[in-house]
Amino acid sequence: MSLTTTTLRRLPRRLPLLSQRRTNTTAAADNLPAAEPPQAGGSIPTVAKSAFMRNTREQALRAPGITFADAAPGSAPSGNLVGGRETRKMNMYQAIRDAMSVCLATDDNAVVFGEDVAFGGVFRCTMGLAEEFGRERVFNTPLTEQGIAGFAIGLASMGHTAVAEMQFGDYIFPAFDQLVNEAAKFRYRSGGKFDVGGLTIRAPCMAVGHGGLYHSQSVEHFFMGAHGLKVVIPRSPIQAKGLLLAAIRDPNPVIFLEPKTLYRSAVEQVPIDDFTLPLSKAEILTPGSDVTVLTYGTPVYHCESAIHLLSSPPPSLAPHVPQVQGAQQKIRGASVELIDLRTIVPWDIETVVQSVEKTGRLVIVHEAGRQGGIGGEIAAEVQKRCFLKLKAPVKRVAGTDAPNGLQYEKFQLPDQVRILDAIVETLSY
Amino acid sequence: MAVVCKLRSIIPEVPNLSPPSMFRPTAFSTLRRGFATQLLPTSKSPISPSLSFFNSVTGDDTQIPTYRVLDGVGKPIEGAEIPEITRDFARKMYEKMCLLPQMDTILYNSQRQGKISFYMTSHGEEAAIVGSAAGLDFEDEALAQYREAGLLLWRDYPLDSIMAQCFGSHEDSAKGRQMPVHYGSKEYHFHTISSPLATQIPQAAGVAFALRRTPSRRDKSIAACYFGEGAASEGDFHAGMLLASTIPSPVLFIARNNGFAISTPAAEQYHGDGIASRGPGYGVDTIRVDGNDALAVLAATREARKRCLKGGRAVLMEVMTYRVGHHSTSDDSFAYRARSEVEDRKRIDNPIARFRLFLESQGWWNGEEEEELKTRLKTEVMKAFKKAESAPRPPLGEMFTDIYAGEMPWNLKEQKEELKQLLNKYKDYDGYKKELAKFTKKGEDVMQ
């Protein structure tokens, strides 16, 4: 019985990796340092062509909010100091690996650990780190999520930097007690005498095309009520490196959720220097004036596609996307403000409210189920603050309130058409 | 332990193998015939044709023995060695063993009078706690469950601080946020106690690993992790034992097996040979000790600590004792055990009396000193008690601090502001007025 259980549990864990390998034939690129990153792949082909990817050195070095660690304090905004800095084309797992390498190189008290991280990790995020920094700093743990979290809390409580990995967000629940009752409350309950600010938990999250119930989940909303924790989700390689380094250095415990379908498919130029991006700061990806679309993680790219479909729908969708609604309201020509929330807890209410006050309309998109999801919380705050400015009800495009059924993913999670429909409905309300 | 050693003496006949002790003689005879060369790829287990099950770590179906130094009247048992102990050290141990129930009784009664909200005594476990604390170094990082206040007393943690925590007064280092007996102090290397059971066990592995990675503390300090036999049923016990053995971390796990987890007797907690039998399964050096024998606990802790430092890995010590008091002030233990059983245990096997008889046999203690000590301790405890009793609570605004380091998030700022509006609006309502009066600054720090 126990043998069967173990076998069943281990096998599915490897599946996404193996299948992703199949989609990526340039396997040689798995070995770092890579001359060329692997080709983009994954379940969303649009990611590779996204306009949000920064494909040139110049664009990468001017990423909004970027702060280089070696920039002199009080010097000119780092966005202007691009001279002499280099970038390298990286996919998201390489950028995450790069962030951990920077962390280990700059902080002797930092260690990286989790299940299977020593050989490079099932998603390659820790490739070569054990060889570079030694097995005392990058090591495997037994297969116990509550143990990994507890061990990390103990390390962090001694002032060390613990970067721990949960192999999938789906398996973070055995550690829920350690994270919610212990890590989140550590500082508060000791009157600030003890803290676990050096704790960062990394976990792959969101759907991957064929992950079924336990390789697809979004878990961020479960931590929204865990006062004392921060939750961060990046959308791209630059974001992943900058936000992960910020999370590691933040004086609070942070859960860093990495959309696993973007590990290989999201590729851009990433500054090779040590840099951070600000936490609790949303990023406006496209400014607009008619409707705000708020999202984070993988659905950023579905939203991008949806906005594209809105302005130029193909013939099969055109009948559902009118040019105008009523006398003035433009639909196809609508100006959409797309926001990447990036930090889920504590979230950037200022940017969101400013945007909705301007547009009067809000569509929130996430993969997690609607009931109890982040969208409900944001919708409640927005309606409280923007009640008189709202021209339409806040719309939530979320996963259905069902487990992630293997064969139903296309119709369970937000895709570009569902998002398009929500935007059209909101604009024509 | 002795049985294990005897069986190991057979082993040299099989080269390069350490077969577990559970193999019976028939299995060993087959080993001698050469089956041992056929090893499995991931194990050093010798091959055996004998269809033989086992359910004991001692090899002969007996239970793991309990290490004892002193008998019931404080005399060394045959073959036992008295650990190195000076007169002053022994007297300090005795004093702290007496202080613990003094403090417990006063705080227990104060809860009964409604002066504090909750309390948990250590009655019956004085030797287990003070004895083990005395075997540790002051800088060893202690991670406790909740019934280990004796360790703080051993480290001379001020009674004022203990009382401040129980009363949640403005002098409480944790700002009155946790229930009574949830002590913590960085200076005294005592990690803040939390209510969820066993969570400190894997944390202790991380703490010990950090000690190993800190040059100034490597090979000097260990983590000492306390928990009850009930908590050892939690998954975190399994995790902690695994981690501290596979990722070398010098933790001394101290299981206080006092026979009960609230109302659940140990017999309903596990079916095996207590907690100690699990140690070898994790590859952890293990010992079972008579927890009512302060000298046995002291000697075992010292030796266990040495092993932690030398091997760099976990050691498990199961300390057998009996919970004489109720589980907590919210529990009446006579609902599930006979009063006579408790009274008998108090009389027959009292850890304080046993140690006192030892001191007297050494000429280190007498009746006069006993009288003087009891009076002095009572005065000291009452003094600290009175001081905390009349102290105000911390400022009300502390409700909102220390949740996050750095800037307070907008939602908390907003909620603090909401409370300010509310208090200013309803400050004349009796229910609020009375409550606000209990805080330092009477809530003004929030209201302004």
UniProtKB/TrEMBL annotation, chain A:
It catalyses: N(6)-[(R)-lipoyl]-L-lysyl-[protein] + 3-methyl-2-oxobutanoate + H(+) = N(6)-[(R)-S(8)-2-methylpropanoyldihydrolipoyl]-L-lysyl-[protein] + CO2. Keywords: Oxidoreductase, Pyruvate. It holds the Pfam family Transketolase_C. One of its GO terms (molecular function) is branched-chain 2-oxo acid dehydrogenase activity. Its EC number is 1.2.4.4. The keyword Oxidoreductase applies. It comes from the Eukaryota. SUPFAM superfamilies: Thiamin diphosphate-binding fold (THDP-binding) (SSF52518), TK C-terminal domain-like (SSF52922). Residues 90-265 form the Transketolase-like pyrimidine-binding domain. Its cofactor is thiamine diphosphate. The keyword Oxidoreductase applies. This is 3-methyl-2-oxobutanoate dehydrogenase (2-methylpropanoyl-transferring). It comes from Pterulicium gracile.
TrEMBL record, chain B:
It is an enzyme of class 1 (oxidoreductase). Pfam families: E1_dh (PF00676). GO terms for biological process: branched-chain amino acid catabolic process. Its cofactor is thiamine diphosphate. The keyword Oxidoreductase applies. Keywords: Oxidoreductase, Thiamine pyrophosphate. Belongs to the BCKDHA family. This is 2-oxoisovalerate dehydrogenase subunit alpha. It comes from Pterulicium gracile.
